[in-house]
């Protein structure tokens, strides 16, 4: 690893290129020649075209093997009473991920995705574990209600942590990356990020997270509104927005998304935390969106606002509101099937099937 964190982020941003138009045109043409009525694969056809654009070749490679990184961090805004769950659940769930006992572990086994857990900012001590990637920037953010969540340098360091992890997974052979998060209270900074990057009112992007009651929900909206009023985050300064109202896992996820795009590897976005990070990544490098696949539409309202802003259509809509990468992992077989259609289905000419 060479260069400062800042240089590594700048180099990654500079390496992001838009989707390849020729490969996309070839994929569209090929979809029209496959032995099926044109358009009959609906959204899978668009997905296959996008994947050809990311890879720069038609047909694109199979997205195998798949690797999920779960970025974990804690949040100073927990002190404002925005979630009923104690902060130590973040670290306890990290241990659960490492033991293979969380929902996302079960789903990852179903689809054959490897799971990596990354500590970018858990507040308490974690047991040393060979499978835990320790890239902790600081033990939790500051309370965004009373000051910045972190310094600009810390945001850049967290971005670089995400870049490092994406690079390691791709160098290890991953052909598709999946996003995951763990951080009690993190739907609050997610709402603040979505509001800041899209200019949407706090009430329209704040949700009930783990399932907060009416009083907590009202406080959450007030916290998001007060944070925006205090910091006045400028969407033209994405690092400043992340530092003021984001989280360490959000910044790391943004770096991870940028690095996937820079390497022309597709990356599946999960729920509202990853979608908020995707807004930051897109603000740093607009073409990074071309490498992103929206795995699902989270119940959390900020997720839909963020995906609409990015122009991404979610693959699944299952009423999920968990995070961890569960929605990204579940979307993987659909993404792979879209690629298989382009790679494996016969054309009218090759199969000798008569056209209408
Ligand atoms: C046991 C448990 C497992 C989780 N897995 C993901 N989350 C999700 O819920 C948290 C965000 O919701 P809020 O902002 O309301 O705290 C994050 O940790 C997110 O990953 C979980 C939450 C809990 C309690
Ligand atoms: O959208 C998500 O991923 C989400 C929603 C609620 C709680 N945690 C995560």
UniProtKB/TrEMBL annotation:
GO molecular function ontology, one term from the record: nicotinate-nucleotide-dimethylbenzimidazole phosphoribosyltransferase activity
One of the GO biological process terms: cobalamin biosynthetic process
Any one Pfam family match given in the protein's UniProt record, by short name: DBI_PRT
Pathway this chain belongs to: Nucleoside biosynthesis; alpha-ribazole biosynthesis; alpha-ribazole from 5,6-dimethylbenzimidazole: step 1/2
Keywords: Cobalamin biosynthesis, Glycosyltransferase, Transferase
EC number: 2.4.2.21
InterPro entries: Nict_dMeBzImd_PRibTrfase (IPR003200), Nict_dMeBzImd_PRibTrfase_bact (IPR017846), Nict_dMeBzImd_PRibTrfase_N (IPR023195), Nict_dMeBzImd_PRibTrfase_sf (IPR036087)
Metal-binding among keywords: no
Domain of life: Bacteria
Catalytic activity entry: 5,6-dimethylbenzimidazole + nicotinate beta-D-ribonucleotide = alpha-ribazole 5'-phosphate + nicotinate + H(+)
Transcription keyword on record: no
Active site: 324
UniProt family annotation: Belongs to the CobT family.
Stored PANTHER family: NICOTINATE-NUCLEOTIDE--DIMETHYLBENZIMIDAZOLE PHOSPHORIBOSYLTRANSFERASE
Reported function: Catalyzes the synthesis of alpha-ribazole-5'-phosphate from nicotinate mononucleotide (NAMN) and 5,6-dimethylbenzimidazole (DMB).
Protein name: Nicotinate-nucleotide--dimethylbenzimidazole phosphoribosyltransferase
């Amino acid at each position: 690893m060479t260069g400062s964190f800042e240089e590594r982020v700048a180099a990654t941003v500079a390496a992001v290129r838009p989707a390849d138009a020729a490969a996309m045109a070839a994929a569209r043409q090929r979809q029209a020649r496959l032995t099926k009525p044109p358009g009959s694969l609906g959204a899978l056809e668009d997905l296959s075209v996008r994947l050809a654009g990311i890879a720069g070749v038609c047909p694109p490679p199979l997205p195998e093997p798949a690797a999920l990184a779960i970025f974990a961090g804690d949040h100073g805004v927990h002190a404002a009473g925005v979630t009923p769950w104690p902060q130590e659940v973040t670290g306890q769930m990290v241990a659960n991920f490492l033991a293979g006992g969380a929902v996302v572990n079960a789903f990852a086994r179903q689809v054959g995705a490897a799971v990596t857990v990354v500590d970018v900012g858990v507040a308490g001590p974690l047991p040393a574990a060979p499978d835990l990637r320790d890239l902790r920037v600081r033990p939790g953010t500051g309370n965004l209600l009373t000051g910045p969540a972190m310094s600009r340098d810390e945001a850049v360091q967290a971005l670089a942590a995400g870049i490092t992890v994406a690079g390691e997974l791709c160098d290890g052979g991953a052909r598709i990356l999946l996003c995951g998060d763990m951080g009690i209270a993190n739907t609050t900074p997610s709402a603040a990020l979505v509001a800041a990057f899209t200019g949407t009112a706090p009430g329209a992007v704040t949700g009930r997270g783990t399932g907060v009651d009416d009083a907590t929900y009202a406080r959450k909206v007030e916290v998001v509104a007060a944070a925006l009023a205090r910091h006045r985050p400028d969407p033209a300064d994405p690092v400043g927005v992340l530092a003021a109202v984001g989280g360490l896992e959000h910044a790391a996820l943004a770096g991870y998304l940028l690095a996937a795009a820079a390497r022309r590897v597709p990356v599946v976005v999960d729920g509202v935390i990853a979608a908020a990070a995707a807004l930051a990544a897109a603000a740093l490098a607009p073409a990074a969106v071309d490498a992103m696949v929206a795995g699902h539409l989270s119940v959390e309202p900020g997720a839909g606002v963020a995906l609409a802003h990015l122009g991404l259509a979610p693959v699944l809509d299952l009423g999920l509101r968990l995070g961890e990468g569960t929605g990204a992992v579940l979307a993987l077989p659909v993404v792979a099937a879209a690629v298989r259609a382009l790679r494996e289905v016969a054309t009218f000419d090759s199969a000798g099937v008569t056209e209408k």
